[in-house]
C-alpha cells in the first residue's frame, strides 16, 4: 500500500500533537503542584450551617505561626466572609461549603479552584507570599445572579494585619 508524502506528514504532525497534549496534561498534573481536593471531611447538613461551629460564624482564625484557617460559606450570590483578610507570608487552609446550590470557589492568581457542593466541605491550602488583592469568583453556574457572585482575599503586610476581625 502506498501512502502519499502529504499523508505521512499529516500523520506525523497528528502523532506529535497527541504526544504534546498528553505530556502537557501529565506535567500539569504532577509537576505543577496541583493537588486534588480532599474528601476526608464528613458531610454536613447545608440547612443547619448556623448550628455547625465551623460555619455558624464564617471567619479567618490563626492556628499557628503564619498559619490560618478560613471558614467560608457560599450562597446565592455571595461569599461569607467578604473580604477575607490574611497577612502576607501566610499559609491559609480554606474550608468552603455551600448553603444552597453548587458553587465554584476560585482565587484568581493562585491554583485554588474548587467546586463547592451543599453538604460537603472543600478543603485546600494556599500560600500567600505577596501582599495584594486576589479576586474570588464563582465559576459554577448557580442561578440568575451568578455573574455578580464575587469576593476577594486581601493580603496585607504583616504589620498592618488586624487579626482577622471582620
Describe it.
There is one protein chain. The chain has 166 residues and is an alpha+beta fold. It folds into two domains: 1-34; 46-160, Immunoglobulin-like. The chain is built from one helix and ten strands; from the N terminus they run H-E-E-E-E-E-E-E-E-E-E. The protein has one helix at residues 5-30, and strands spanning 59-64, 67-75, 78-80, 84-87, 90-98, 103-107, 113-116, 122-128, 132-137, 150-156. The strands form two sheets. Strands 1, 2, 3, 5 and 8 form a five-stranded mixed beta sheet that branches. Strands 4-10-9-6-7 form a five-stranded mixed beta sheet, with no helix packed on it. A hairpin with a 2-residue loop joins strand 1 and strand 2. It starts with a helix and ends in a 10-residue tail after the last strand.
Amino acid at each position: 500500500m502506498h501512502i502519499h508524502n502529504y499523508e505521512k506528514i499529516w500523520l506525523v504532525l497528528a502523532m506529535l500533537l497527541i504526544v504534546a497534549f498528553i505530556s502537557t496534561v501529565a506535567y500539569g498534573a504532577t509537576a505543577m503542584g496541583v493537588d486534588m481536593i480532599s474528601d476526608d471531611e464528613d458531610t454536613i447538613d447545608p440547612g443547619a450551617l448556623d448550628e455547625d461551629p465551623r460555619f455558624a460564624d464564617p471567619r479567618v482564625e490563626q492556628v499557628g505561626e503564619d498559619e490560618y484557617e478560613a471558614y467560608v460559606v457560599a450562597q446565592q450570590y455571595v461569599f461569607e466572609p467578604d473580604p477575607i483578610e490574611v497577612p502576607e507570608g501566610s499559609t491559609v487552609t480554606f474550608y468552603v461549603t455551600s448553603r444552597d446550590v453548587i458553587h465554584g470557589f476560585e482565587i484568581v492568581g493562585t491554583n485554588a479552584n474548587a467546586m463547592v457542593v451543599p453538604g460537603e466541605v472543600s478543603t485546600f491550602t494556599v500560600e500567600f507570599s505577596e501582599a495584594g488583592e486576589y479576586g474570588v469568583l464563582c465559576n459554577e453556574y448557580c442561578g440568575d445572579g451568578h455573574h455578580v457572585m464575587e469576593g476577594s482575599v486581601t493580603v496585607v503586610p504583616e504589620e498592618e494585619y488586624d487579626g482577622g476581625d471582620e
